[in-house]
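Posting for a labmate who doesn't have an account.
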Amino acid sequence: MDLVLSYSPPLNKKCSPLVLKDDEDVAALLAARSDSTCKIPLGVIVERTEVCAYEKSSQDSSDDTDGSHDGFRDNYFDLPVFRNVERTENDNGASVTQPAEGNPVVDPLLRLIGAASDEPVNVPTTEASDSSFRDGSDLHEGKYFNTKKDLKRKLSDIAMKGNFEFRTRKSNRSLWVIECIDPNCSWRLRASKIVPESTKFVIRKYVGVHCCSLLNRNANHRQATYVVIGEQVAPQYVGVEKGPGPKGVQTFARTKLGAQISYYKAWRGRKHAHTLIRGSPEQSFHILPSYFHMLEKLNPGTVTRIEVDGESRFKYLFLAFGVAIRGFRYMRKVVGIDGTFLKGQYRGVLLVATAQDGNGQCYPLAWGIVDSENEDAWTWFLTQLKEVIGDTDELALISDRAPSIKKAISTVFEKAHHGACAWHVAQNIKNKFKCADIMGSYWSAVNAYRCEDFAGYMTEISHRYPRVAEYLENEVGFEKWSRCHYPGLRYNITTTNMVESLNSMLVNARDFPYVALLDVIQEKMSKWWNDRRIVAMAITAPLTPSRESEFRPRFAQSNGRHTLQLNPVTYHVKGGELEGVVDIFNKTCTCKEFDIDKLPCVHAIAAAHHAQVSVYSLVSPYYTKEYYVLAYGETIYPVGSQSQWDVPNEVATRVVLPREVKERKRGRPKTSRFPSVGEFRKRKNRCGKCGAYGHYKKKCNSQTGSTEGNQPTDVPV
């Protein structure tokens, strides 16, 4: 049973009895009654209510332990709040009071005046006042929150959306009291722990009506901290690599939260959102051993390595998925290696080793993170790579001409052949000799199949630029960049474009913590393996799509060629610009295209027709559908949520500390790399009339001379 006290004030209009909710209401009533000669009817209402014993005991316990009897509660919440109310039950079953529908909420002071006088009083209501408003929230007394942090997050969100601010009056581990920033406003909230041992908070007192002035509205909202902004914008970074930048965060805060924030606060909010979604850099080092353990467990055959110094600080890491290692047997044995810088807090360099499948697509083999591109780092990475792919005469390693890579390859690999990237050599020529006009002859020499053709192009270069010819022959060496002079077999791969493509793919993920970066790599590779498996299974031709499209024109060109059989396996093919002698057993031709590309040339196709041999039997198996399917036949699995990991104690307790980094210079961190030697970045011109890029002021078609309304639609590269 529950007793409800109420009284009826002597007003000049009918209204429901006013409920006395607590001692404060009774004290206010007695104070009003002591100075009055009129009688105020006092009534007792008996209601049957169900009260949770635990909740009641928790509230009583909390009031005894959260500092509520230190005089603060009685002094702070001493404003009489008499309301026309009706009792209802909330979602938790607790009895709560709310304004009676259709009855005004009467100001307490005017009620007391009316109670102390026999004169009729016209009582104003908050509905008629333009200065009062509710905060629009679903908060109520008795509402629970799992933690104090959740309660603060909820109130900050309500304040920003309701366009008001609050300040903390008192706060400790078990109590939180806040009020509107305007001292004359009635909005306030008091919450405390349900019991001292619990982390849950419950709202004890809550006044959700504002009467503050619009002059107290501030666009630079004090509740819009970078933490709150980061928590609100964090969902926009889930499942994407880039997400909104600082200006995008500013727009989000203005349009969604109604807060004007600075660029710096937006930048910090964005950084906090990244931490919430991808973890902190320090945490990434801590969980790295466990992460690698799960990769090895879920992907059999995966090879991982972590190298630390004497103080357990991170130095290097290496990762090669078992699926890629096993699939390398179906790849041409040409591996491109290169590195690209990372942009996160601890910087570093990402090293990549990749092959190329029979369809001309990148096939990543191994990944590594080191401190910088030096000889020690490259030697360590290539040593791990050698354990994965081996060292044979058939293996070709393609890279730029960095001295550290050159020395590391010669140290680690004894049988493999090293080749230089022809594009980097070309950039060095243009930068060193300023002779871009001979690039046509240079690339013709690079792609020449026969040494006779190569010699003709080099003669042309030496006649015009003798120093360039000397540089290519003596300093670089023909065997490093020329296809016909290469001692091994590099097929049609003359550059490291396949590695540069991987670096470009990760341009937005290179500022992630290490584990988050590896997650992106795993996700990309898993998607590639699945997509290419689907494509491979749908192929109906004997060859991969790209090789089939390259093969068909040669097939058409072979028609009309005169073929003379010299012996059971050798044929002389005439016609066209060049004759050829084909050995269909050894799969060679004097034009050298068949020898180097391992794809039948025009002469070999004509010889196969004459010998009544299937042309596809002369194609290297690396280009066939069968090898393409086998290369992507397995699946790369993710590690899942960290809460689902099953890691041995010796792995989980392994200490990997962040590496020591040099203190950064002041200002905006640099995120773009320095151009390579001979690399030029073309910058578009900006119009001084309309502000757009790509043309000059004299050639501008804009009708106005003002830049207003003619913002640039493109940005310089």
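Reply:
Got it, the structure tokens are right above this. The longest strand covers residues 362-370.
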